[in-house]
Amino acid sequence: MAQLSPRRASRAGLALATACTLAWSGCATPPSASAPAPAAAPQVAEPRPAETPAATAPAAGLKPIETDAGRLVPVDWSEVPDFEVDPLDDVHKSFRFSCPYLSRTPHWRPVCAQVAKLKPNDAAGLRQLLQSLQPYRLESKQGERSGPITGYYEPVLRGSRVARNPYFYPLYSRPVDLVPLDAKRGKGVTRGRREGEQVVPYWTRAQIPTPQGQRSMSGREIVWVDDPMDVILIEVQGSGRVALPDGTALRLSFADHNGHPYRPLSAWFRDKGELPSPGMLQIRQWARRNPPARVQEMLYSNPQVVFFRAEPVTDVTVGPRGASGAPVVPMRSLAVDPKAVPLGAPMYIEFASPLAGNVLNRRVVFGHDTGGAIKGPVRADFFWGFGEHAGEVAAKTRQNGRLWVFLPKP
Q1: Which end of the chain is more exposed for a tag (fewer CB within 10 A), N or C?
Q2: Dist CA 266 CA 283 (whole Å)
Q3: What pTM was computed for the model?
Q4: What secondary structure, in 3-state letters, does 177-201 show?
């Protein structure tokens, strides 16, 4: 992700799913007081021109569904490009992961009952089940059918449960003395700690290693990793795996943060007149060339620290749980705006893949997750998988694309 956007479960997705299945004349959701402010859409590259179908009349007897973010336009299956070509690998698993969330609304329960009866390798039966649903094209209120598609992944770090060479850089669980702080009193800081009768801003990244900061943080270490840049990486991504020396792995997921505003490292480089627009790779290379004190100065320029919760990795083929509660599946999961599309629903995506020279990537996906920067009707973050290669591909995924969602027929 380009910015810190911890993935948190949202009730908006369930509310939208209920509205879409129970009130087909519209599915706008009430504004949420806790929803983050919309982030500016990233600059994207246009995909290689594709054959775009002419304006399609809505499917007979159905009207577009208005949402808070845009609208869902009912279309015929003939508009969903190359649906018959998708081999549907991992789609059965992804659908099963979605069903506990989807089944909270009555209209999804018969669909999920059919999913449960299907064999995992029954692609024909799965395709028939999907085609029993009604496809809807996502578009803006102005009728725009394409929008920004970006990518994300789960980093894999090297670490140890005990501090030893070369594992010197801790990742922390949520401290017990962390309390809410009014942003006005805290001058923009939203978490604090009690100091006598007062609540004062919580320790910054630079303060945590001090003796005073360690009174709060000592004993909260989950693991130590071997690269200080990996601490920043997993904080920005919001979750990640840590490979341990004994061959096992831990998954760390976002639990909280210290309440200080996030300041991207690129701002420090800009202020210092170095590396005008650095990405993570460029920053890593810079860190290897510079003395530890200089690297520490750069890292401490971001006062925000993310705290994590740990769980074992029980299935190495899937990623962390998304906002729907479903584990995200490589190349089958999206982060979406739950005000634009029902969270957990089966979808279809078309965008230019950076893996194969901008060849159009068309496949069934699921809206398993959300993200602070994922706002708008035709906006998605595509989950590429795990590790360094997935991270490189995710960083290159900044294209325009199109989206459809499949919903139970009314």
Answers
A1: C
A2: 9
A3: 0.78
A4: CCEECCCCCCCCCCEEEEECCEEEE
Q: What gap in Å lies between CA 159 and CA 197, rounded to an integer?
A: 39
- Which residue carries 């769980």 as its tokens? 311
The DSSP bridge pattern shows strands 398-407 and 346-352 to be antiparallel
What amino acid is encoded at 78 in this protein?
S
The correct CATH number of 11-28+44-49+56-152+322-407 out of 2.60.120.260, 3.30.420.40, 3.40.630.30, 2.40.40.10 is 2.40.40.10
DSSP 323: T
Token code pair at residue 219: 């004993």
CA dihedral 239→233→218→314, nearest 10 degrees, is 30
Distances in Å between the Cα of 405 and the Cα atoms of 99, 317, 328 are 15, 25, 17
Tell me: cis bond preceding 408? Omega within 30 of 0 counts: no
Angle at 260 between CA 149 and CA 176, to 5 degrees: 110
Angle in degrees, 0-180, between the axes of helices 91-102 and 109-117, rounded to the nearest 10 = 150
Number of other CB atoms surrounding residue 357 within 10 Å: 8
pLDDT in tens, 361-408: 999 999 999 987 899 999 999 999 999 999 999 989 999 999 999 999
Query: So what's the pLDDT on residue 54?
Result: 43
Q: What is the pLDDT of residue 59?
A: 60
Q: What is the pLDDT of residue 230?
A: 96
**Predicted confidence (pLDDT) per residue in 150-162, tens digit:** 999 999 999 999 9
Q: Where in the chain is the domain with CATH 2.40.40.10?
A: 11-28+44-49+56-152+322-407
